[in-house]
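Task card 7
Instruction: Convert sequence to structure tokens.
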Amino acid sequence: MDGMDINALPLVGGHPALDLVNTVERGTPRPRDHLADPPALLHWARRVGLVDDAEAAAVAESWDRDPGSGDATLAAVRDVREALHTVLLAVAGGASPSDPGVVAAALERLHGRWAAAVARSRLVLAPEGSSAARLAVGGVPEQLVPDRAADAALDVLRGADLARLRRCPPEAGGCGWVFVDRSRNGSRRWCRMADCGSTVKARRLTERRRADRAGRDR
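Output:
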């Protein structure tokens, strides 16, 4: 995945908040952040549906008026991402922090971001045939992306089937990305077989062949 453009980054999480966590390649000695700058963030937010084209244009215009707001937006979204990652590792039983206070602090950060987003939201009537009303999150362009990211984070923690939350196993050569396993028997192991699964299998095959050759040469 090295050198991959943000528009080609695989979306494997099954939820925008999980795909946000997966914008960092953590299974390497030097983790790579695909949300490298505000434009990359905005492209990614459009891809996963956090904003539509008109909203993205409004956000970009607000950044043009105040260039510093783009960097502030990126920092806020990264904060949501890292707090959610900490919580998800605890949920998935991965390499979570040994101090429960770290998880509690991450939850508090997420709640604070979400509460601020709700304060900027509006209650609107939903389309006919659905629920009576819904909360429209993100009414301020400068805060639109982080507000939607915080709302998505709370949505995945409250509404997703976290019993099926998986982590592409770094201990077995996987990338460490998280995803919801929607396979029928709940046996999905890799983020994508075409990426980590095939890579690990190919590496193991190479190692076995080397071992066989070494055994024959003795």
